[in-house]
Amino acid sequence: MNQREVYPSAPLVSVSFELRHPQSETLTPRQRTLFKDLLSNELPVMRTQQFASQTIEFGPSGPVTQVQTEEYPKYFDRQTTIAASLLRGSTIVETTQYPGWDDFSELLLKVCNARNEVSPIDGVERVGLRYIDEIRIPDTDDPEWSEYLIPSLLGPHVENDPDLPLTQWQGVAVYGPEQGRSLVMRHATGEGFAVDPNGELRRKSPAYPGKFFMLDLDSFWVPESGVPVFSMSLIRETGETLHAPVREMFEQCITDRLRNEVFRK
Q: Is residue 149 assigned to a domain?
């Protein structure tokens, strides 16, 4: 198995990269236009978005909820499968049609570099990569997951009541932190969709509801002390470091039958 192999029928439905940095001022119209010019080939379509955050403060009369909204630009490719969001405190690149790590990392580096050109980034607070898979077995209403996934993902098996078979389960595994790096894996059975098929980004094929197994891998790095200076070499090296365990973990979770009968078709 080639670690760089892109499966023809890969189960990926969402891949995202996030760079968190100290907050800056909201981008001006001129800065937004300049960013659009710098990525005119990759992300030529700009739309204005709203982000709402909620905080709760406790005062003499009890808890008070405050909602803050942020207006920010979001840039899309013409197929609406890739987008970059420029918020005050983070830069996000996401896609529903993953082209493979080499191409995706090249794009996120371009986005970070352009963001820094139009509005200098004052430091790095967190870097993260997240991969969400919806594993589906075609033409099977009730998959026997033990034939496609490793046993540790399949939930506890008890035999005290055979009239109540295990039908749903979920779990979370946390690895790290080690030198600021962590990997969180969430897994669960589901029916329908893990990622909204009617979201802003178009999925790579007509989505169909049904039973699936979700693998959600979140690999991230948080500086152990201070706020490192932003640099393209730091983002490049950190991205490579975060990506490696994601691919390794995914490959260790699946069987050759899943690779050959589903992913390589």
A: yes
* Position 239 in a domain: yes
Mean pLDDT of 156-162: 65
pLDDT one-digit tens code per residue, 120-153: 999 999 999 999 999 999 888 888 899 999 999 9
Q: pTM of this prediction?
A: 0.89
C-alpha distances (whole Å) from 233 to each of 113, 230, 242, 249 are 11, 9, 14, 25
Query: How many structural domains comprise the chain?
Result: 1
CA distance 186 to 257: 22
Structural domain including 132 reads: 12-50+68-158+167-263
Q: In this structure, is residue 62 part of a structural domain?
A: no
- Cβ-based neighbours of 172, under 8 Å, separated by 6 or more: 184, 185, 186
Q: Distance between CA atoms of 133 and 203, rounded to whole angstroms?
A: 12
What are the C-alpha distances in Å from 162 to residues 15, 16, 159, 216? 39, 41, 6, 30
Residue 5 belongs to some domain of the structure: no
